[in-house]
Amino acid sequence: MQNSVRDLAFADDFITAQLVENPCDYKVEDAVVVNLSPTPMITGDKHPAIIPPWKSTWLKGGVIKSGERAALIKVRKTTNLGGCMFRGWDWLGNRIRSFPRDTPLYISAQDSLGLISTDAKYFTNERAQAEDLQDFELKINLWWSPGDTDCFIHNEHPFLEVHTQIHGVGRMQKFHENDEATLYEDMPMSIGFSHDPFCRVTGPNEWTYPWHRYYADTDCVWLAVELHPITVS
Ligand SMILES: [Fe+2]
C-alpha cells in the first residue's frame, strides 16, 4: 500500500517521527527524510534526484516521488528537549557497566521495522552491486547529548550501523587507537546528513569497526540505523 504512515516508537511532543511505507508523491513540509531501504529513493519534481540507500536529506516543502520506506523526523520543540530522560529515554550507563559514569548520552525507545534483505558488502560499499543477499532486522532509535559531549570511543557492534543528524551539529570521528589523541578522521554531521558506513565485512555476519565515537558540538539529536543479522539456528 502506498503512503502508509505510522508514528515511530520515539515520537513525542518534542520530536515528530513518522515512518512512511512506499511513499509516492508524498509532500514533506519540513523534516529530515531518511531512506531506510537498500534501494534509491526519488525526490523532487522538475529536477528529480535520488537519496541513495541509507542516506538522507532535509526536505522543506519537497516531495518524495517514490521509494520503499522513509523516516520523517523533526525536532519541533527545543525548550526542555534535554529532559528526555524524564520522558523515558535511558542513560546508556544503565545498559553498559563500563560506560563512563559522567557522560550524558541518552537513548530513546527503539523501533523495529522488520526484515530487510541486502548484501553486507554492498551496504559497506565493498561491492558495487548486491550479490550475497541475507536478511537483517532493521532497528532504529534516537540519541541525545548536550553540547561538548564525548559519546565514548568504541569499536564493537553486533550489527551494521550508520547515523543521521536530526538536530544540532556533531561529528563522527575515527581513531587509530582507543585514545582521542589518535584521531584520523573527523566527519561533520549537520541536520539531514548521514555518514557512510565505516565497518568492513570480514566473514559471514562478521565485521570490524575502527575505533570511533560521536562527538556532540551542540545539543544534538541523531538517529541510529542498525541492521541486525538474522542467524538461523
Ligand atoms: Fe558505533
Main sheet: strands, sense, barrel: 6 strands, antiparallel
Question: Would you count the extended β strands for me?
Answer: 21
Give the oligomeric state of the chains in this entry, treating copies of one chain as homo and distinct chains as hetero: single chain
Ligand kinds: fe (ii) ion
Reading off the top of the CATH hierarchy, the class of the largest domain is best stated as Mainly Beta
Describe this structure as you would to a colleague.
- It is a single chain.
- It is globular, with a radius of gyration of 17 Å.
- Helix content is 2%, strand content 48%.
- Strands 10, 11, 12, 13, 15 and 21 form a 6-stranded antiparallel sheet that branches. It has a 5-stranded antiparallel sheet with strand order 1-2-9-4-7, with no helix packed on it. It has a 4-stranded antiparallel sheet with strand order 3-8-5-6, with no helix packed on it.
- Strand 18 (200-203) and strand 19 form a beta hairpin.
- The protein has 2 domains: 4-75, Jelly Rolls (Sandwich), CATH 2.60.120; 81-229, Jelly Rolls, CATH 2.60.120.990.
- By secondary structure, the protein is mostly beta strands.
- The chain has 1 helix and 21 strands.
- The structure holds fe (ii) ion (FE2).
- Fe (ii) ion binds at residues 154, 157, 161, 212.
